[in-house]
Specification:
tt1808, chain A, 5-stranded mixed sheet, 4 helices, 11 strands, hydrolase
Length: 189
Amino acid sequence: MAYPTTKPADAPELTWEIAQLFPAQGHWSEEEYLALDTNHLIELSHGQLEVLPTPNQSHQLLVIALFELLRNFVREGQLGTVLLAPMRVQLWPGKFREPDILFMRTENDDHRSDRFWHGADLVMEVVSPDDPERDKVTKRREYAQAGIPEYWIVDPADASITVLTLQGQEYALHGEFGSGETATSVLLH
């Protein structure tokens, strides 16, 4: 995308002084990132902030439905804690993501804090139509690298759920589930 090099005469002036109070891209520390107080989904990667698009209604309704199903299952078995974005998850030093849905088993409660979690046991991402590769490729690689045992990729475009389970340092396919099928988990059975 090309950006104009001149400002239209009727364009409002941005408050550049405010922007100068923050680090330049590539120079954000964990402390500076964690100090951000915003209602936007913002992830940290290699000193750079990644501002995610605001989810639309259909995305939110799907996330809420999945959250309620998982939360009810987890509550019934007293298996752990389930949360929705925005909740920061540190994958490794300098790398934070905000999965749509995240789960931590009770025995790993010491990995949870009020500000962010150190990893997770299961994460779910609803594929964003503006950048499907982010959820299907980039986050798949990162979540595997972080040692997250199970990753669910929920794709509204083809009404599918791909359940991946960690085998060594990479994810293996547990199952691909379509509309009308019941997705199953290796971690939660």
